[in-house]
Specification:
Layout lengths: L1 H43 L8 H23 L4 H10 L1 H23 L1 H13 L5 H20 L1
Helix pairs in contact: 1-2, 1-6, 2-3, 2-4, 3-6, 4-5
């Protein structure tokens, strides 16, 4: 009796997830594409935007394209949609790693040139409202973890 209840609840959970994941994927993809457009406009209006600023914008744009494509494939019940969604969400660790490398390079640069500018930059980074990407990244990582759990069952 217990085994039957577990199978029934797993089936309901799988059906529920199959209906919600495309919606979450399109919301995440739309938010990523909106953020990419927002940052692109801000970057084009700045005269001295450094080269490494484009890495985050490009990664989030690619993430948005993959998530929207995955949502369409999942709505059409294509199994390829899960792989495309995982591919899109796997861009996030690359983006975080490249950000850490860039912060390290910039920290060393500012440490040798002028140490007071390092602390001013760190304060600017924390107080910048465009850093709303972090909650989006957390949601995407939680979604990726949930996808791995459903695939392993």
């Amino acid at each position: 009796m217990t085994n039957h209840n577990q199978e029934h609840s797993t089936t309901l959970f799988a059906d529920w997830m199959q209906k919600v994941i495309p919606v979450l994927s399109v919301l995440l993809g739309g938010a990523a594409l909106w953020y990419t457009w927002y940052m692109y406009n801000d970057n084009m209006n700045t005269l001295d935007f450094p080269w490494y600023g484009w890495i985050r914008v490009a990664c989030i744009g690619i993430l948005g394209i993959f998530c929207v494509t995955a949502a369409l494939l999942l709505l059409l019940s294509k199994p390829l949609g899960w792989n495309v969604l995982k591919l899109g969400l796997s861009i996030i660790p690359f983006m975080l790693f490249s950000g850490l490398v860039i912060v390290g390079i910039r920290g060393i640069y500012y440490l040798f040139n002028n140490s007071s500018a390092l602390f001013e930059r760190f304060e600017q980074f924390i107080m910048d409202p465009s850093n709303l990407v972090i909650p989006i990244i957390v949601v995407a990582l939680l979604l990726l973890g949930k996808l791995n759990q459903t695939k392993s069952k």
